[in-house]
Amino acid sequence: MTDHRLLDIQRLDTEAEQLRHRHATLPERDALAEAQAERSRLEALIAGLAASRLDVATRQKRFEDEAQIFATKADEDDKRLYSGEVGMKDLQPLQDEIAGLRDRQAELEDRALEAMEEAESLAGEQAATEAALHDIEDRITALEAELAASETEVDGLLADVVAARDEARAEVDGADLAEYDRLRPGLGSSTVVRFDGGNCVGCPSTMPAVELDRMKHAESGAVLNCSECGRIVIT
Ligand SMILES: [Zn+2]
Protein backbone atom coordinates (compact mmCIF):
# COMPACT_ATOMS: atom_id res chain seq x y z
CA MET A 1 0.00 0.00 0.00
CA THR A 2 1.35 3.37 -0.91
CA ASP A 3 0.39 6.98 -1.28
CA HIS A 4 -0.13 8.00 -4.84
CA ARG A 5 -0.68 11.37 -6.40
CA LEU A 6 -3.82 10.00 -8.10
CA LEU A 7 -5.34 9.72 -4.64
CA ASP A 8 -4.43 13.37 -4.00
CA ILE A 9 -5.98 14.40 -7.32
CA GLN A 10 -9.13 12.48 -6.47
CA ARG A 11 -9.37 14.07 -3.02
CA LEU A 12 -8.79 17.56 -4.45
CA ASP A 13 -11.35 17.01 -7.23
CA THR A 14 -13.87 15.99 -4.60
CA GLU A 15 -13.03 19.03 -2.49
CA ALA A 16 -13.44 21.25 -5.58
CA GLU A 17 -16.85 19.70 -6.30
CA GLN A 18 -17.92 20.34 -2.71
CA LEU A 19 -16.77 23.96 -2.92
CA ARG A 20 -18.63 24.48 -6.20
CA HIS A 21 -21.73 23.00 -4.59
CA ARG A 22 -21.25 25.27 -1.57
CA HIS A 23 -20.90 28.26 -3.92
CA ALA A 24 -24.12 27.30 -5.71
CA THR A 25 -26.10 26.75 -2.50
CA LEU A 26 -24.95 29.60 -0.26
CA PRO A 27 -27.80 30.33 2.19
CA GLU A 28 -27.37 34.07 1.55
CA ARG A 29 -28.53 33.48 -2.03
CA ASP A 30 -31.89 32.03 -0.89
CA ALA A 31 -32.30 34.80 1.68
CA LEU A 32 -31.57 37.37 -1.03
CA ALA A 33 -34.08 35.80 -3.44
CA GLU A 34 -36.71 35.86 -0.68
CA ALA A 35 -36.00 39.52 0.09
CA GLN A 36 -36.16 40.39 -3.63
CA ALA A 37 -39.53 38.62 -3.92
CA GLU A 38 -40.77 40.58 -0.90
CA ARG A 39 -39.54 43.81 -2.54
CA SER A 40 -41.52 42.99 -5.72
CA ARG A 41 -44.60 42.23 -3.62
CA LEU A 42 -44.33 45.57 -1.77
CA GLU A 43 -43.71 47.50 -4.99
CA ALA A 44 -46.86 45.99 -6.52
CA LEU A 45 -48.79 46.77 -3.35
CA ILE A 46 -47.64 50.40 -3.44
CA ALA A 47 -48.58 50.73 -7.11
CA GLY A 48 -52.03 49.33 -6.28
CA LEU A 49 -52.45 51.74 -3.36
CA ALA A 50 -51.39 54.71 -5.49
CA ALA A 51 -53.94 53.73 -8.15
CA SER A 52 -56.66 53.38 -5.49
CA ARG A 53 -55.78 56.80 -4.06
CA LEU A 54 -56.12 58.34 -7.51
CA ASP A 55 -59.56 56.72 -7.94
CA VAL A 56 -60.70 57.92 -4.54
CA ALA A 57 -59.39 61.45 -5.14
CA THR A 58 -61.24 61.56 -8.46
CA ARG A 59 -64.42 60.41 -6.73
CA GLN A 60 -64.00 62.99 -3.96
CA LYS A 61 -63.55 65.77 -6.51
CA ARG A 62 -66.64 64.64 -8.42
CA PHE A 63 -68.80 64.66 -5.25
CA GLU A 64 -67.45 68.11 -4.30
CA ASP A 65 -68.15 69.49 -7.78
CA GLU A 66 -71.66 68.04 -7.80
CA ALA A 67 -72.33 69.37 -4.29
CA GLN A 68 -71.19 72.79 -5.51
CA ILE A 69 -73.66 72.68 -8.41
CA PHE A 70 -76.55 72.04 -5.99
CA ALA A 71 -75.21 74.73 -3.58
CA THR A 72 -75.05 77.31 -6.37
CA LYS A 73 -78.58 76.49 -7.51
CA ALA A 74 -79.87 76.67 -3.90
CA ASP A 75 -78.07 80.03 -3.38
CA GLU A 76 -79.69 81.42 -6.52
CA ASP A 77 -83.12 80.23 -5.34
CA ASP A 78 -82.43 81.80 -1.92
CA LYS A 79 -81.79 85.14 -3.59
CA ARG A 80 -85.03 84.87 -5.55
CA LEU A 81 -86.90 83.90 -2.38
CA TYR A 82 -85.81 87.08 -0.60
CA SER A 83 -85.97 89.32 -3.65
CA GLY A 84 -89.67 90.02 -3.20
CA GLU A 85 -90.25 89.08 -6.80
CA VAL A 86 -91.83 85.71 -6.04
CA GLY A 87 -95.59 85.59 -5.72
CA MET A 88 -97.18 84.21 -2.54
CA LYS A 89 -98.37 81.00 -4.19
CA ASP A 90 -94.85 80.29 -5.48
CA LEU A 91 -93.13 80.77 -2.12
CA GLN A 92 -93.81 77.34 -0.65
CA PRO A 93 -92.83 75.39 -3.80
CA LEU A 94 -89.62 77.43 -3.99
CA GLN A 95 -88.80 76.76 -0.32
CA ASP A 96 -89.44 73.07 -0.91
CA GLU A 97 -87.12 73.12 -3.92
CA ILE A 98 -84.40 74.87 -1.90
CA ALA A 99 -84.76 72.31 0.90
CA GLY A 100 -84.45 69.52 -1.69
CA LEU A 101 -81.33 71.11 -3.20
CA ARG A 102 -79.73 71.56 0.25
CA ASP A 103 -80.48 67.90 1.11
CA ARG A 104 -78.85 66.73 -2.10
CA GLN A 105 -75.88 69.07 -1.45
CA ALA A 106 -75.46 67.69 2.10
CA GLU A 107 -75.65 64.11 0.85
CA LEU A 108 -72.95 64.76 -1.76
CA GLU A 109 -70.76 66.55 0.80
CA ASP A 110 -71.06 63.50 3.11
CA ARG A 111 -69.93 61.24 0.30
CA ALA A 112 -67.03 63.58 -0.50
CA LEU A 113 -66.03 63.42 3.18
CA GLU A 114 -66.18 59.61 3.15
CA ALA A 115 -63.94 59.59 0.08
CA MET A 116 -61.52 61.94 1.84
CA GLU A 117 -61.37 59.63 4.87
CA GLU A 118 -60.78 56.67 2.59
CA ALA A 119 -57.98 58.62 0.85
CA GLU A 120 -56.36 59.34 4.23
CA SER A 121 -56.53 55.67 5.19
CA LEU A 122 -54.96 54.67 1.85
CA ALA A 123 -52.24 57.30 2.27
CA GLY A 124 -51.41 55.87 5.71
CA GLU A 125 -51.27 52.35 4.32
CA GLN A 126 -49.04 53.50 1.47
CA ALA A 127 -46.66 55.29 3.86
CA ALA A 128 -46.38 52.14 6.00
CA THR A 129 -45.77 49.99 2.91
CA GLU A 130 -43.12 52.43 1.67
CA ALA A 131 -41.38 52.21 5.05
CA ALA A 132 -41.43 48.39 4.78
CA LEU A 133 -40.03 48.67 1.25
CA HIS A 134 -37.24 50.88 2.51
CA ASP A 135 -36.38 48.27 5.18
CA ILE A 136 -36.35 45.44 2.64
CA GLU A 137 -34.12 47.47 0.32
CA ASP A 138 -31.64 47.91 3.19
CA ARG A 139 -31.81 44.18 3.83
CA ILE A 140 -31.19 43.42 0.14
CA THR A 141 -28.13 45.68 0.14
CA ALA A 142 -26.78 43.91 3.26
CA LEU A 143 -27.51 40.43 1.84
CA GLU A 144 -25.84 41.29 -1.48
CA ALA A 145 -22.70 42.28 0.44
CA GLU A 146 -22.85 39.09 2.57
CA LEU A 147 -23.34 36.93 -0.51
CA ALA A 148 -20.45 38.60 -2.32
CA ALA A 149 -18.20 38.10 0.72
CA SER A 150 -19.16 34.41 1.02
CA GLU A 151 -18.65 33.87 -2.72
CA THR A 152 -15.24 35.49 -2.54
CA GLU A 153 -14.28 33.26 0.39
CA VAL A 154 -15.43 30.06 -1.36
CA ASP A 155 -13.84 31.14 -4.66
CA GLY A 156 -10.55 31.70 -2.81
CA LEU A 157 -10.67 28.20 -1.30
CA LEU A 158 -11.58 26.74 -4.69
CA ALA A 159 -8.68 28.51 -6.40
CA ASP A 160 -6.27 26.98 -3.84
CA VAL A 161 -7.72 23.50 -4.33
CA VAL A 162 -7.62 23.78 -8.12
CA ALA A 163 -4.00 25.00 -8.00
CA ALA A 164 -3.02 22.05 -5.75
CA ARG A 165 -4.94 19.67 -8.04
CA ASP A 166 -3.16 21.02 -11.14
CA GLU A 167 0.19 20.68 -9.37
CA ALA A 168 -0.60 17.04 -8.53
CA ARG A 169 -1.74 16.31 -12.08
CA ALA A 170 1.57 17.58 -13.43
CA GLU A 171 3.31 14.81 -11.48
CA VAL A 172 1.18 11.91 -12.76
CA ASP A 173 1.78 9.80 -15.84
CA GLY A 174 -0.37 10.94 -18.77
CA ALA A 175 -1.94 7.51 -19.42
CA ASP A 176 -2.91 7.10 -15.76
CA LEU A 177 -4.37 10.59 -15.77
CA ALA A 178 -6.38 9.84 -18.91
CA GLU A 179 -7.70 6.65 -17.31
CA TYR A 180 -8.69 8.57 -14.16
CA ASP A 181 -10.41 11.29 -16.21
CA ARG A 182 -12.31 8.63 -18.16
CA LEU A 183 -13.55 6.82 -15.04
CA ARG A 184 -14.15 9.81 -12.74
CA PRO A 185 -17.56 10.88 -14.15
CA GLY A 186 -19.01 7.44 -13.40
CA LEU A 187 -17.18 6.47 -10.22
CA GLY A 188 -16.83 9.87 -8.58
CA SER A 189 -14.92 10.16 -5.33
CA SER A 190 -14.02 6.45 -5.28
CA THR A 191 -12.54 6.23 -8.77
CA VAL A 192 -9.13 5.45 -7.25
CA VAL A 193 -8.94 3.02 -4.35
CA ARG A 194 -6.18 1.39 -2.38
CA PHE A 195 -5.51 -2.30 -2.49
CA ASP A 196 -5.91 -3.38 1.12
CA GLY A 197 -3.81 -6.49 0.67
CA GLY A 198 -6.79 -8.79 0.18
CA ASN A 199 -9.39 -6.91 -1.83
CA CYS A 200 -10.21 -3.90 -3.97
CA VAL A 201 -11.81 -1.67 -1.37
CA GLY A 202 -14.26 -0.37 -3.99
CA CYS A 203 -15.79 -3.81 -4.56
CA PRO A 204 -18.55 -5.33 -2.47
CA SER A 205 -17.53 -8.82 -3.58
CA THR A 206 -14.39 -10.78 -2.80
CA MET A 207 -11.61 -10.54 -5.33
CA PRO A 208 -11.05 -13.76 -7.32
CA ALA A 209 -7.84 -15.58 -6.44
CA VAL A 210 -6.21 -14.93 -9.82
CA GLU A 211 -6.95 -11.22 -9.53
CA LEU A 212 -5.67 -11.16 -5.96
CA ASP A 213 -2.47 -12.79 -7.13
CA ARG A 214 -2.05 -10.18 -9.87
CA MET A 215 -2.47 -7.35 -7.33
CA LYS A 216 -0.14 -8.90 -4.80
CA HIS A 217 2.61 -9.39 -7.34
CA ALA A 218 2.41 -5.92 -8.82
CA GLU A 219 5.16 -3.60 -7.75
CA SER A 220 4.29 -1.15 -4.99
CA GLY A 221 2.60 1.99 -6.34
CA ALA A 222 1.49 0.28 -9.54
CA VAL A 223 -1.71 1.60 -11.12
CA LEU A 224 -4.05 -1.28 -11.99
CA ASN A 225 -7.71 -1.63 -12.80
CA CYS A 226 -9.90 -3.91 -10.71
CA SER A 227 -11.35 -6.53 -13.07
CA GLU A 228 -14.57 -6.58 -11.00
CA CYS A 229 -15.54 -2.92 -10.73
CA GLY A 230 -13.14 -1.15 -13.08
CA ARG A 231 -11.78 1.15 -10.39
CA ILE A 232 -8.17 2.21 -10.42
CA VAL A 233 -6.44 0.25 -7.70
CA ILE A 234 -3.20 1.55 -6.23
CA THR A 235 -1.17 -1.36 -4.91
ZN1 LIG B 1 -13.02 -3.39 -7.53
Percentage of residues in strands = under 5%
Find the count of extended strands (DSSP E, 2+ residues). Answer: 3
CATH-defined architecture of the largest domain: Orthogonal Bundle
Could you name the CATH topology of the largest domain?
Helix Hairpins
List the helices and strands and how they pair.
Blueprint: H1 5-24, H2 27-81, H3 88-169, H4 174-187, E1 192-194, H5 209-217, E2 223-225, E3 232-234
Parallel strand pairs: 1-3
Antiparallel strand pairs: 2-3
Helix pairs in contact: 1-3, 2-3
What does this structure look like?
With 235 residues, the protein is mostly helical. The radius of gyration is 42 Å and the shape is rod-shaped. Strands 1-3-2 form a three-stranded mixed sheet, covered by helices on one side. A hairpin with a 6-residue loop joins strand 2 and strand 3. The chain has helices spanning 5-24, 27-81, 88-169, 174-187, 209-217; strands at residues 192-194, 223-225, 232-234. The chain has two domains: 7-172, Orthogonal Bundle (Helix Hairpins), CATH 1.10.287; 173-235, no CATH class. Residues 200, 202-203, 226, 228-229, 231 line the site of zinc ion.
